[in-house]
User: Which sequence fits this backbone?
């Protein structure tokens, strides 16, 4: 689905696309423009399954008041103060001054967001020319679990035990795709200071790796444009470090998962009774069920729904309807490496002063065996590492 443009008096509305594979978000319109609140109307549908409480869609909104040069959160007129700028700390400013069908939306159909955009909110006036984008991301609900047993099987570097107490959370149904990351780059990367700290740069040439990448750049910052490589739009993005993962997920109003949240989403039940793989215990991980060493030659990422039909044919599924937790790309978490029994204090990293290494979960196109277990952990990935086998997934607490 490509963005559509609607002229509504002095305001323009755009349907954004942020990786909702089976979701159609369109017919975006704005009305009630003469008041300090404006209504953002849109149509939201999904072919299958139906949008509902356990499989909602995360809706977030960005706006521009300078002809699309700068895209901002709906909190105020200063992009430096919001999460669209990247590298910010504190509470999220995504979806501020919005109410109605925004955030976790649990049904399809005609939708209405109320935006307090006048003096009591963002501070815009009816004389301003504004562009609005509405984005959709498919999510899955994971129930609370006060006694989730970590580790307890043969996964590589698995924790040896301990119990995590988890509140309910929502996790992306698929990892962040090239199509999604391109949206993020086009809204933020040209305004990001390339000279300030290369570790935090959003764009890196690894993302356009000839064999495994899927993001192409035209021109150069600060006037660059990015597109997803044809045929690779729905491959998971690679070449992103932990800072990129954190900034991109915050741009959506989400955050990276802790490793205990990730393991719960993958295994459903903890300890020895938990799923071995993201779909259950058997059949054993194979090249026909996930993208692992030997699935493709040369090894590479693959479309994030490549194995859905194979799972259906085998009668297997993740309990929460999540895909690609096993294989394809490792995923950044919000947990510092350690060993032994579960330690809750190791999760919830400081963006300003993160540990040198950060835990990855899920295995990738280049591994097999015990690395694909739901309890498996990669413990030696530097926070600045950009490689062709690590990607991003996000959650909403």
Assistant:
């Amino acid at each position: 689905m490509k963005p559509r443009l609607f002229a509504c008096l002095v305001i323009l509305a755009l349907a954004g696309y942020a990786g909702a594979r089976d979701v159609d978000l369109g017919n975006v319109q704005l009305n009630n423009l003469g008041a300090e609140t404006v209504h953002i109307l849109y149509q939201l549908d999904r072919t299958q399954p139906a949008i509902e409480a356990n499989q909602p869609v995360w809706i977030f909104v960005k706006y521009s008041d300078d002809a699309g040069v700068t895209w901002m959160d709906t909190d105020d007129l200063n992009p430096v103060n919001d999460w669209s700028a990247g590298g910010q700390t504190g509470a999220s400013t995504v979806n501020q001054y919005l109410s109605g069908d925004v955030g976790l939306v649990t049904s399809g159909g005609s939708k209405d967001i109320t935006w307090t955009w006048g003096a009591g909110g963002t501070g815009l006036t009816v004389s301003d020319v504004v562009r609005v984008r509405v984005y959709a991301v498919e999510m899955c609900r994971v129930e609370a679990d006060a006694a989730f047993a970590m580790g307890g099987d043969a996964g590589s570097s698995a924790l040896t035990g301990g119990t995590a107490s988890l509140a309910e959370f929502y996790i992306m149904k698929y990892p962040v795709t090239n199509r999604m990351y391109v949206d993020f780059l086009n809204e933020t990367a040209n305004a990001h200071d390339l000279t300030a700290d290369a570790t935090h740069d959003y764009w890196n040439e690894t993302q356009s790796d000839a064999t495994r990448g899927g993001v192409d750049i035209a021109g150069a910052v600060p006037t660059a444009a990015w597109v997803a490589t044809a045929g690779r739009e729905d491959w998971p993005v690679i070449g992103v470090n932990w800072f990129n993962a954190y900034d991109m997920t915050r741009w959506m109003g989400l955050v990276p998962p802790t490793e205990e949240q990730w393991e719960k989403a993958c295994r459903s039940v903890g300890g020895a009774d938990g799923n071995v793989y993201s779909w259950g215990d058997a059949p054993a991980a194979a090249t026909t069920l996930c993208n692992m060493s030997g699935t493709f030659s040369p090894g590479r990422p693959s479309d994030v729904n490549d194995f859905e039909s194979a799972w259906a044919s085998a009668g297997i599924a993740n309990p929460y309807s999540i895909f690609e937790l096993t294989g394809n790309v490792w995923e950044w978490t919000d947990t510092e490496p350690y060993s032994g029994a579960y330690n809750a204090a190791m999760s919830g990293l400081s963006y300003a002063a993160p540990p040198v290494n950060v835990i990855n979960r899920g295995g990738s196109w280049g591994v097999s065996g015990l690395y694909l277990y739901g309890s498996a952990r990669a413990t030696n990935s530097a926070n600045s590492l950009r490689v062709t086998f690590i990607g991003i997934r996000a959650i909403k607490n």
Remarks:
- Helices lie at 178-188, 242-251, 259-267, 308-314.
